[in-house]
Amino acid sequence: MNIASVRRPIIPPTPPRAPDNLSFFGRLAVIKQNMIATWGQRAYEEEIIQGRFLLHKSFILNQPDAIRHVLLSNYENYTRTPAGIRMLRPVLGEGLLLAEGHAWTHQRRTLAPAFTPRATANLVPHMTAVLDETIAKLDARTNEPIDLREIMQRMTLEIAGRTMFSFGMDRHGPTLRNFVMEYAERLGRAYFLDMVLPVSWPTPMDRARARFRTRWTEFVAMLIAERRAAGKNEGAPPRDLFDLMNEARDPETGKGFSDEQLVDEVATMILAGHETTATALFWALYLLALDPDTQEEVASETSGEHLDSMADIDRQKFTRAVVDETMRLYPPAFLVARAARGKDVVAGAKVSKGDIIMIAPWLLHRHEKLWDQPNAFIPKRFMSKEAPDRFAYLPFGAGPRVCVGAPFAQAESVLALARLIGAFRVELADTIPVIPHGVVTTQPDHSPMFRITRR
């Protein structure tokens, strides 16, 4: 895509690129700290890179047609890798993100009605209520250094709690955040044995993850019990996602979720929803603090808007472009790894059973053959008539397994960014570069301090 720009766009900091000849064990050492830093310049220039991982071949795909083949045309031939399953199962169980085959089909069909744009519109009042409270709290902290990353995490967690259960997370939020931090700091990292042993062979970390899962599922079940105790008014429309999920039935079989399945689905929606959205909002605020001119454009678009309905959100075209560009530069899921179930041919390369296919949105979104000025922050590229190839931009995945909650996440992100920038001017309070780290999601290496002032 060619983008004409009147002024020089900002280029946010990134980790140094690895030497293209980095050894296997050198790469393993870097993976534990920052997966993003394991890729060299070739990965940003070539359409397909073939390598080896122990007994199998590995492929990095940066060609949209090849990605379309893996994620859409022949998606049933590709499954999650052992390491991917190990990283996600303890927190998501057999929920939608990890389910396969008939179980996935049942879950997808059953959940889809709860995440349509119309269903999302009914949840906007929950979002606006939390945003009103967040802005009121921030009003008392203007002109002092603040950690906006932590504030975004608390805010999106509160939105997740209210849209899921219709109750606030004041009592349960700290416990949930402790679960998230505990898992991310140690258990959510891939270790050597996690990557080489079959899922049926427990690794030492798997035992620790199993203990974590027991505590985690008990906590989610407690939240569900509390919500059920609150009941539902007879004849009233669903008031939250829990109502929608609890009442959901597979349109073909009429089957709903068991209590065990509901725990995994609720855990998936809360974690996948609040953590990824908080991270995206943090990066958007960071970029706008680096780029005051673009920040003023967002504020100008928001000026005079009430922003309390889906129609209001849909009018924020430039703010939506800022969110889209943020997720291009900092895709929440920086890597999608799949293992081949059988033989295939991808981009002319022969794939055998067990071979690893890697589709890295971090690479794809910064690929020099797919994007003009790929490392620059240029939101208006998403307002161009020349849209990016559907399989060159994957913030929510693609194909049958595209994120079911994408409409919800997009609405929340646009609404939150518009309201926050409409209320406050955001600046960085320090000059230390923030480097993205790939650990479960695309996280900052540290939480910078910001300073906000009322508009």
Automatic annotation (TrEMBL):
Binding site for heme: C403
Homology family: Belongs to the cytochrome P450 family.
Name this polypeptide is given: Cytochrome P450
Pfam families for this protein: p450
Highest rank taxon of the organism: Bacteria
Lyase recorded as keyword: no
InterPro entries reported in the protein's UniProt record: Cyt_P450 (IPR001128), Cyt_P450_CS (IPR017972), Cyt_P450_E_grp-I (IPR002401), Cyt_P450_sf (IPR036396), Cytochrome_P450_monoxygenase (IPR050121)
Keyword annotations of the record: Heme, Iron, Metal-binding, Monooxygenase, Oxidoreductase
GO MF terms, alphabetically ordered: heme binding; iron ion binding; monooxygenase activity; oxidoreductase activity, acting on paired donors, with incorporation or reduction of molecular oxygen
Necessary cofactors: heme
